């Protein structure tokens, strides 16, 4: 099933064609409302389009874990989440509790060649006060990683999307950008801003990294 989804994605990428219109820069004044009272990575909106926007993110430090699989299950998803959750709960070199941040971002990267194997990377942002010297994870499959400054096309949507619904949003974003030379085709991100107990105003995003 997943293979079919990826193939559809590839077809959508190679078929897309059109021109996007730049708009003037819009700076981010305060953290957006959808971060609620949690820290989230700093960005500015550099262009707005119908249905999506282009953001510039500053460098940021994350705790991450990864998995290579042909089929990404709910079990895989919660296992990765809890590895990171244990890190912030005190399973780290300083035995400190680290506040939760938002969003949780999942990077999905297609494997090379004809197999369906893909690489999944789950990330929590390290709070700003810890970014200069983050506690070291005690779990060897959990690690600290720096995301360099980057530009990303972002499409936002609400609800509680399934993996397939998120894939469909990626495909919509691909169609809307309409020019595959503008973004990295090998990988994309899902960003989820809410825990399972948030009922209203849930916020989700799909990201495609802009190419220069
Ligand atoms: C979830 O994954 C773990 C580790 O791979 C495995 O031990 C466990 O049996 C899995 N659970 C289910 C319900 O598949
Ligand atoms: C904490 O890390 C240790 C060492 O990796 C591991 O054995 C233990 O299960 C972890 N505990 C939690 C709550 O993640
Ligand atoms: C994936 O995780 C392992 C630790 O389990 C790490 O050594 C490796 O560098 C990670 N891969 C990438 C591409 O970050």
Automatic annotation (TrEMBL):
It comes from Mizuhopecten yessoensis (Japanese scallop). Pfam families: SOUL. SUPFAM superfamilies: Probable bacterial effector-binding domain. Residues 1-18 form the signal peptide. It comes from the Eukaryota. Belongs to the HEBP family. This is Heme-binding protein 2. Keywords: Signal. InterPro entries: Reg_factor_effector_dom_sf, SOUL_heme-bd.
